[in-house]
C-alpha cells in the first residue's frame, strides 16, 4: 500500500496531474505517518499552488532524500507547547533545507475536512521560506505570518495566492538555485583540486 502511495505522490509531484506548466523542479522529502491520505492531499494541493508560479515539486523518499539539494520536512505529532507557541511550522534557514511542521497543531486549528488544505498552505509557506532563504512575510496571501479565520474560510473554497513580491522572490531564488546546481554539475571534482 505504501509503495502505491509513493508512486502516486511521485506522479503528482512531477506534474503528471497538473496544468502542463514546465519549470524548475524542487525535490522535497517529507515524513509519512498514520494519516497518509491527508499528507497525500496536502502534497497534491501544494504542488498545484507552486505550479501556478511555474515551480514543480517532486515529492520523494528513500535514496532521493540523500541529495544535498533536497528539502526535508519533518512532521511533528507531539509538539511541545513551549516550542514556538502559536506557530504551525518553521523553516530552519540557518540549517539549509530543513522544515518542521507541527502537524498536531494544524489538526487542532481546523475541522478535519479542511486539514489537507491547511497543511498544503503550511507546506507551501515553509518551502517558500526555504527557497527564498529569508524569514519575511507578506501582508496578504499564502505568505502571511498568521492565518486568520477569514483565511481558513477562503482556503475551504480556493487556495490563498502569492503576493506579487513573493512571486518575484521565488523566481529569483529558483534562477539562483538553477545556476548553483548547474555549476555543481559542470565543475569537475578531482581529488586534491580546489
Task: Describe the protein.
- α2 (36-51) packs across α4 (115-132).
- The protein is an alpha/beta fold and 194 residues long.
- The chain has one domain (2-185): 3-Layer(aba) Sandwich (Collagenase (Catalytic Domain)).
- Strands 2-1-3-5-4 form a 5-stranded mixed sheet.
- It is globular, with a radius of gyration of 17 Å.
- The chain has helices at residues 2-13, 36-51, 103-109, 115-132, 149-157, 164-186; strands at residues 25-30, 56-60, 71-76, 89-92, 98-102.
What is this structure, in a nutshell?
The chain is an alpha/beta fold and 194 residues long. The chain has helices at 2-13, 36-51, 103-109, 115-132, 149-157, 164-186; strands at 25-30, 56-60, 71-76, 89-92, 98-102. It has a single domain (2-185), classed as Collagenase (Catalytic Domain) (3-Layer(aba) Sandwich).
SSE layout:
Layout (H helix, E strand, L loop, with lengths): L1 H12 L11 E6 L5 H16 L4 E5 L10 E6 L12 E4 L5 E5 H7 L5 H18 L16 H9 L6 H23 L8
Parallel strand pairs: 1-2, 1-3, 3-5
Antiparallel strand pairs: 4-5
Helix pairs in contact: 1-2, 2-4
Shape: globular
Uncertain stretches of 5 or more adjacent residues = 1-19
The total domain count is 1
Task: Please count the helical segments.
Answer: 6
Quick one: how many beta strands? 5
Give the strand line-up of the largest sheet.
2-1-3-5-4
The CATH class: Alpha Beta
For the sheet with most strands, the description reads: 5 strands, mixed
**Could you tell me the mean pLDDT?**
82
Structural class: alpha/beta
CATH architecture: 3-Layer(aba) Sandwich
CATH homologous superfamily label: Collagenase (Catalytic Domain)
Amino acid at each position: 500500500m505504501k509503495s502505491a502511495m509513493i508512486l502516486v505522490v511521485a506522479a503528482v509531484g512531477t506534474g503528471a496531474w497538473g496544468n502542463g506548466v514546465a519549470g524548475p523542479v524542487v525535490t522535497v522529502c517529507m515524513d509519512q505517518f498514520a494519516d497518509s491520505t491527508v499528507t497525500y492531499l496536502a502534497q497534491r494541493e501544494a504542488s498545484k499552488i507552486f505550479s501556478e508560479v511555474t515551480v514543480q515539486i517532486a515529492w520523494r523518499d528513500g535514496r532521493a532524500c540523500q541529495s544535498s539539494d533536497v528539502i526535508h520536512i519533518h512532521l511533528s505529532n507531539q509538539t511541545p507547547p513551549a516550542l514556538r507557541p502559536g506557530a504551525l511550522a518553521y523553516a530552519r534557514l540557518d540549517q539549509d533545507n530543513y522544515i518542521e511542521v507541527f502537524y498536531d497543531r494544524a489538526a487542532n486549528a481546523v475541522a478535519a475536512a479542511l486539514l489537507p488544505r491547511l497543511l498544503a498552505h503550511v507546506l507551501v509557506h515553509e518551502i517558500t521560506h526555504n527557497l527564498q532563504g529569508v524569514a519575511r512575510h507578506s501582508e496578504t496571501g499564502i505568505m502571511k505570518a498568521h492565518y486568520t479565520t477569514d483565511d481558513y474560510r477562503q482556503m475551504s473554497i480556493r487556495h490563498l495566492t502569492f503576493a506579487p513580491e513573493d512571486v518575484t522572490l521565488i523566481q529569483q531564488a529558483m534562477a539562483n538555485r538553477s545556476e548553483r546546481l548547474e555549476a555543481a554539475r559542470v565543475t569537475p571534482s578531482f581529488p586534491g583540486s580546489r
